[in-house]
Amino acid sequence: MSYDVTIFGIDITLKPVAFTIPIGNGWDIYWYGIIIAIGFLGALIYAYLNYKRFNLDIDRVLDVVLFTTPVAILCARAYYVIFDGVKLESFGEFFGFGDSSGFSGLAIYGGVIGAFVMGFIMCKIRKVNVLDMFDLAALGFLIGQGVGRWGNFVNQEAYGTFTGSDWWGMQSDVTVFEMGDGLVHPCFLYESLWCIMGFVLIHFLSKKRKFSGETTLMYGAWYGFGRTFIELLRTDSLMLGKIRVSCLLAALLFVACTVAIVAIRKKICESKVEYKNLFDEEVEEDVQAD
Hints:
Blueprint (H helix, E strand, L loop, with lengths): L2 E5 L2 E5 L2 E5 L5 E4 H20 L7 H27 L6 H4 L13 H18 L4 H26 L14 E3 H7 L7 H20 L7 H20 L5 E2 L2 E2 H27 L9 H9 L1
Antiparallel strand pairs: 1-2, 1-5, 3-4, 6-7
């Protein structure tokens, strides 16, 4: 299976399957999974290079990540299934068994929620400062999301409405079949670029963070603002009645994180307290013992 795609006047042929492993009837390896793995690897490399700046121990960071990642993936799948509105025929279908497209249908919000909840639990178990860990993870999320959205491009999903332009946008076999002739908004590209720009900006801002957790709030505000508008362009939004679920969550995330940053910074300025690493004494002693 392949897709003929035209994006910004450039013709491309996309094949969702990267290669097939000769096991049984053949085990297809999809570009979507490979791209997601590359984004995950990029986030891990960033964490390895910057963990000291966030007052963290790399061994404990890896413990948290290894236990949190599978939970985040399952939560991303569960979120999609809940709001997709399509009834599953079997339990195995949740994991994509029997589906020629493989394990597909993930929602980033479900993954982020699952990651933060499980991450919080693992931080407590491994005695890692939660807010410092979240700050480091937030930058990793931006890397993963920026890279991962290209998996949507290969699968020809997460696109938007017609652009009304003769040049700006993309068109493929999928978009023509589902929407008709015309260029549509490449929403995957918008979100990828937004996340990459956010990573660069917040990376530098994180070097002067005023309190632990500030980088996490910056991530929420930045991603929430961009996703609010990008979601309005999409044609495949998960719905709750007539409400675009991701659009509503993005707007609430932006407002909540922005208000929190302003309020906490104001409190710090009024109290004239200089920033110091909020590294639990108990955790610090435990790390030194390692």
